[in-house]
Amino acid sequence: MRVLVAMSGGVDSSVAAARMVDAGHDVTGVHLALSSAPGTLRTGSRGCCSKEDAGDARRVADVLDIPFYVWDFADRFKEDVIDDFVASYARGETPNPCVRCNERIKFSALASRALALGFDALATGHYARLSDGRLRRAVDHDKDQSYVLAVLTAEQLRHAVFPIGDTPKAQIREEAARRGLSVATKADSHDICFIPSGDTRAFLGARIGVRPGAVVDAAGTVLAEHDGVHGFTIGQRKGLGIPGPGPEGRPRYVTGIDADTGTVHVGDLADLEVTTLVGDKPVFTSGTAPDGPVECVVQVRAHGGTADAVATVRDGSVAVDLRVPLRGVAPGQTLVLYRPDPDGDEVLGSATITGAH
């Protein structure tokens, strides 16, 4: 099988490539150039896709003796991930850019080019598993990335390979060291890859500008002024700019954001609880939406908690009734549905949250 491996320059994708070679496949490595100024995309363990990363990926490819290329996806990444991220925050939403990158870059633009060039599959270093075409959680639940892959269609999954999903992260590093790969001890990237400073508010402010508004309590009393709703997200407690706690000394949290009026609503912790979610553009990994209500487990953050629920598809959207409330759910987040079996590791589908109450 001809396999294209997306090589970020990190330990995970490097071991994924090595395992594909060991399996006897015809392997080619590719590094995605996602910035027109790649030197700006890494600061220590923050960021990715820098010249340093491309060099690390190339050295691994040399050790594995496989062809290696760098493909320029900077324009597509800016449009489909960065611009989408900024626009979503400007609407008062809380997006996950890793979800969009997998959906629109790695398993759409990259995979499409790979198939057009005659490759049979795209392999990545994601921590997830495929079994009979079904997406499942990784063995290492602490590193599991099935959440950010749940937007993939059945057709995209059919051409995907996740070689390391059956192995804990610590063993992946040990394997890289045994293979003599220089990235064995390389720090993992974290936070948002295109904001290496880690200052999301400043990044958004530079692109959205000042859009003044008010922070108000449940009674409509103005507690503070702000420079833009992009500086807030549902469930936020710190950095609200208000003089102190709420009644009886209780902390206050962002409970709602109205981007049209620039109003940020705050309230008590109990005000964050929701029992119903509504999601747009649902994707079901089997390729077929369920005919009726389906028992499931729902997850709304990449490393957040889960809740038992019942999901129903209605008029192109999905309604999820939670058996126990969740807190801090924001429009723009991705809801992922898992099968409620003893393992709870099979992904049923996903949708983008448009409402929660």
Automatic annotation (TrEMBL):
Domain tRNA-specific 2-thiouridylase MnmA-like central span(s) in chain numbering: 202-268
Pfam families from the UniProt entry: tRNA_Me_trans (PF03054), tRNA_Me_trans_C (PF20258), tRNA_Me_trans_M (PF20259)
Residue ranges of the TM segments: none
Spans annotated as Interaction with tRNA: 143-145
UniProt: ATP binding residues: A6, M7, S8, G9, G10, V11, D12, S13, L32, G125
Gene Ontology molecular function, alphabetical: ATP binding; tRNA binding; tRNA-uridine 2-sulfurtransferase activity
An example Gene Ontology CC term for this record: cytoplasm
Site (Interaction with tRNA): H126, Q333
EC primary class: transferase
PANTHER family associated with the record: MITOCHONDRIAL TRNA-SPECIFIC 2-THIOURIDYLASE 1 (PTHR11933:SF5), TRNA 5-METHYLAMINOMETHYL-2-THIOURIDYLATE -METHYLTRANSFERASE (PTHR11933)
Protein name: tRNA-specific 2-thiouridylase MnmA
Source organism of this protein record: Mycolicibacterium chlorophenolicum
Protein encoded by which gene: mnmA
